[in-house]
Amino acid sequence: MNRAAFFDIDGTLTEKPSLELRYFRVLQREGKLGLQNGIAWLAEAARLAAKGPTYVQHGNKAYLRGIRSTGLRANRAADDAPFFPEAVECVARHARNGERIVILTGTLEFLADGIAEKLRAEMLKRNVAAEIHVCATRLEESDGRWTGRLLGQPMFGEAKGIAVWWYAEKWKLNRAECSAYGDSGLDEWMLASVGKPVAANPDSRLRATALRQRWGIVSWAREVRPKKKLAKMVPESAR
Fold first, then answer.
1. With CB atoms counted within 10 Å of each terminal CB, which end of the chain scores lower, N or C?
2. What is the arrangement of strands in the sheet containing 145-151, beginning at the earlier edge strand?
């Protein structure tokens, strides 16, 4: 099969807030982020300022300097991020067609790996054989801790488009038959690199581009979940 489907995570496969913000909140709750982490982030922001605020937002991970790279925090961040049910069904459709699935995201690789594992579990529930790959922003690690430095470029904007071309060359893909799904204007390069681009829950910038380019547009609804107070009122035997 010479086709693949590329999926962004935050706002496309999963509900916002982003995985990284969820991870940040876990670290905050556990008291793992101190003054030195904030100072490191500010210093790196100043160093990267010439590249613009978008690059600073996606390329500055200095606040993670010294944080252990092992543990369950990343899993908790992934577990707390609900999938859009229709997004999971979309992945399943592509997988049933024998297409490779690529999670192509600006989030941190270890967080994206957690989502990939959840997605594989969802495919197993549906008896769908899925080949799922991850291409994400990578962090440098030393002695079991993050250094706060990136390995390579942050995976957003033009880098996503380059990644699609790289996979196309590696797997001999027919890009005209490949699909891509994203929600942000920063996903435009990825979407423009395939023959079947879809703006999923698009922001205003991406929606305008999708309308102009006649790309597909879909709105994926959140999973309906009972409110906690109501859930507690329902007996365990009835759930």
1. C
2. 145-151, 132-142, 100-108, 4-7, 179-182, 196-200, 216-218
Report, as ranges of residue numbers, the positions in the chain whose pLDDT lies below 50: none
Cis ω for the linkage preceding 17 (within 30 of 0): yes
Residue 135 belongs to what H/E stretch?
Answer: strand 132-142
pLDDT of residue 223: 78
Q: 95, 130 in Cβ contact below 8 A?
A: yes
CATH superfamily of the domain spanning 4-15+83-218: HAD superfamily/HAD-like (3.40.50.1000)
Residue partners of 110: CB distance under 8 A and separation at least 6: 69, 74, 139
What is the pTM for the complete model shown?
Answer: 0.88
pLDDT given at position 79: 77
d(CA 100, CA 130): 7
The phi and psi torsions of 152 (rounded to 5 degrees) equal 80, -160
For tokens 């009972």, the residue is: 226
Distance (Å, whole) CA 156 – CA 120: 24
- Domain ranges within the chain, ordered by starting residue: 4-15+83-218
Burial 114-138 (b: 16+ CB within 10 A, else e): bbbebbeebbeeeeeebebebbbbb
